[in-house]
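Much of the work behind modern protein science is quiet bookkeeping, done one molecule at a time. The protein below has been through that process, and both of its lines are reproduced in full.


***
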Amino acid sequence: MMDPTTDNAAPTGDPASARAALEALRAEIAKAVVGQDPAVTGLVVALLCRGHVLLEGVPGVAKTLLIRSLAAALELDTKRVQFTPDLMPSDVTGSLVYDARTAEFSFQPGPVFTNLLLADEINRTPPKTQSSLLEAMEERQVTVDGTPRALPDPFLVAATQNPVEYEGTYPLPEAQLDRFLLKLTIPLPSREDEIDVLTRHAQGFDPRDLRAAGVRPVATAADLEAARHAVAATTVSPEITAYVVDICRATRESPSLTLGVSPRGATALLATARAWAWLTGRDYVIPDDVKALALPTLRHRIQLRPEAEMEGVTARLGHQRGPLPRPRSPLMAPTGRAALLAALGSLPVGIWEPGWTGLLAVNAPLAVACACDYALAAPVRTLGLTRSGNTSVRLGDTADVTLTVTNPSRRPLRARVRDAWPPSSWTPGTETEASRHRLTIPAGERRRVTTRLRPTRRGDRRADRVTVRSYGPLGLFTRQGTHKVPWTVRVLPPFTSRKHLPSKLARLRELDGRTSVLTRGEGTEFDSLRAYVPGDDTRSIDWRATARQSEVAVRTWRPERDRHILLVLDTGRTSAGRVGDAPRLDASMDAALLLAALASRAGDRVDLLAYDRRVRALVQGRAAGDLLPSLVNAMATLEPELVETDARGLTAAALRTAPRRSLIVLLTTLDATPVEEGLLPVLSRLTQRHTVLLASVADPHVASMAQGRGDVDAVYEAAAAAQARTERDRTAEQLRRRGVTVVDATPEELAPALADAYLALKSAGRL
């Protein structure tokens, strides 16, 4: 193991020889590992940048062998930790051990005290143990019992995870993913490489004996330190710095991403680009260096929206399809009018005076006119732009956002303005007309233009950029530039079921009107005293009140108010299925809003929990007047997640949110597999303490399929629909036998059906 050194130690080797030694690593590691040159390069870049690497690949692609071969070729110490569910943090970092001979505690270092730590299957261990590496990765030290202990240098964590099997795993949180400098994928070998692997094994290759395989040290820690100092001296121009910033900012503003690259990611991209530039033999960085490392440096720092995943977009596809932003430069261009004049002027020249003299005679004046036109066009960079207008809108309605453009120059502005927003901000086919405006602004004045949005999806719609094209007085030449003018419009759920609220409130008032004939029972509370009427239940007579007055008095009761209702939205994979033109989650939200509005009018307290594998939204303790706005605002940004819902985690979160007896409304699926394998085993934890109501969105297309007749295809569809309905009914019956009230209805009928079920429970005193 190498001794710890400081980051600013003087280099002890020659940079040129260090580069040659590191380049020789590929050939040396290839003696043991076939066809993984990109991964080797990534590991070398991480060592040069003092970073860490996340290796992702299916089992059996030589991830462990790669790290062991790298350590052998660099003559570094390496240790391997198999992360398991029962692994403790002290198993990684080390612990204090009592020495009976000296009657003192001594520190026993853990496997983290090495040069190359292989954290095998890191996502198999709980977050508590995963977090034990955070200090080691960031601070390069371990603190045990309040005493920090430095780790050796160089120090690199190479963590592996399996991308195809997630049962029993604990996904790394975003904060820990961001600590890894690179995410490298280890692909399956090509046919030729796999033949080479088998040939080596047939010839006696033993992956446990690297020395017998011929792997020898070709670089030392001194070479690595000299290389690090050379990388630190690599020149980075301001344009490259701006280029890196533009790439990272583009991820934060992309409509396909929910999480963009952090400033730490931007510094990581710059560092890896410098290391790559030095490895390729240059002492300066070019845009191609940034492009080469952008994918492995950034792909684990971003999160795709669920709808983008459903459309097949990935971090790799986004990198291939969408070109990375280029360093900005001022844009000037001739207009179509200038091109037309040049073409018309060339026609008589070609007829009467062909040759350079004729062309110059026509085009020289045109070029002078274009230059004058460009000079007289108002500058774009100095324009002042601000926004105002709507910040929220219901889905299906319009929102007006006003853009104020100020022209501080001494020249009038004749411009076309494009106010760019995400495509889902408009109805398809209308974005071109809605986003483009013509402007004429005298010198020193300002004008306003209004962009009308009609979003087609829930969530936050953020303004992209404003592009201004300024024309000269002749319309021959233009100046063009872009401005960032941030603005966000939150698109709220449409709450179409609010049309049912008056009728449900009328039923609620009718229910309250019948309380005088209710007898005391579970879910009721005392209402008032009235005179005895023949036929009243004698058990309702209040003898104390009767003794104080001259007539017999009876107690009346009403459904108990201030009951607690917890709405649980399942945002997992099954909520992403589309019924009609919207996902099931939207219909569940609409039903939840109607029930919340009705329950709050009934005097009950309503909370919201959205969950799949973690809490996506939580609304608690809101007053009746603030309840609906809080729910709508929380639901606006919810999207289905393409993961299996963790039923145990959902149950635990619901029990934490509802500590006392409550009505828990589960808005989830009735599909057999998720219910039987996920919900049923943990359902008793909910039903033994709470009243449980499950509401599910049914597909109306199944009912129409069941009516099909006339040809073979229609009969088969009808049979499939009947089978699906039978399985759904069987699942619902299993839930009812366990005491759950089940509501299964189409999107249009779910909200009123759920409200009716709530009123029925309230009427029966089951709340």
Residues 712-737 form the longest helix (26 residues). The CA atoms of residues 570 and 611 lie 6 Å apart. Confidence is low (pLDDT under 50) at residues 1-12, 307-313, 317-330, 514-519. DSSP finds 26 helices and 32 strands in the chain.
